[in-house]
From TrEMBL:
Signal peptide: none
CDD domains: NAT_SF
Keyword Oxidoreductase recorded: no
Name of the protein this chain belongs to: GCN5-related N-acetyltransferase
Species whose genome carries this gene: Methyloceanibacter caenitepidi
Keywords for this protein: Acyltransferase, Transferase
Example of a GO MF term: acyltransferase activity, transferring groups other than amino-acyl groups
């Protein structure tokens, strides 16, 4: 008999504090040394428990990865922000606390978001990742994402390259 201790479920109001913690841990792990320090600290400070409470009150599309009763990560998703085209769905953020990375749990979050987008009849999927975040880029490539576009994200005068990965 197999017991799956990790499940993907919709985020609820009680998850706000855990989401803030997961966000902080994941962003420090992913972006320290990539995003300028003060910008990173400001971004983390803005995304505390109150911010997540407001997001969840608006019924935003957020799934959490519940690992044995702990929120190990999250994914946010919805209609693609670049408008018309073959990619109608978009994953805006997918993050796991560093403790839970490398175990295949990110794939569970990705699949959960992709399933919801399919249910909403939003075919084709787009995800943006900073090019210097090699772990994220490798993750999306491993899942079959094809790099289709590039852009930049600016942080206090520092311009960082980002890549769009797509699935049909």
């Amino acid at each position: 008999m197999s017991v799956d201790v990790a499940q993907v479920r919709p985020a609820g109001p009680k998850d706000a504090n855990a989401l803030a913690t997961a966000y902080e841990e994941a962003w420090r792990g992913a972006y320290q040394g990539i995003i300028p320090h003060l910008d990173l600290e400001r971004m983390i400070a803005r995304r505390g428990q109150g911010w997540w409470e407001r997001v969840l009150q608006r019924r935003a599309s957020v799934l959490v990865l519940d690992f044995g009763g702990q929120v190990a990560g999250y994914v946010t998703f919805g209609r693609c922000r670049i408008g018309r085209g073959p990619y109608r769905g978009e994953i805006f953020e997918l993050y796991l606390s560093p403790t839970y990375q490398g175990l295949g749990l990110g794939t569970k979050l990705f699949d959960g978001a992709r399933q919801k987008l399919h249910e909403w009849r939003l075919p084709g999927l787009l995800v943006w990742a900073l090019a210097d975040n090699e772990a994220a880029c490798d993750f999306y490539l491993t899942l079959g994402g094809k790099p289709i576009a590039e852009g930049t994200e600016d942080f206090s005068g520092t311009s960082l390259r980002k890549i769009a990965f797509a699935w049909r």
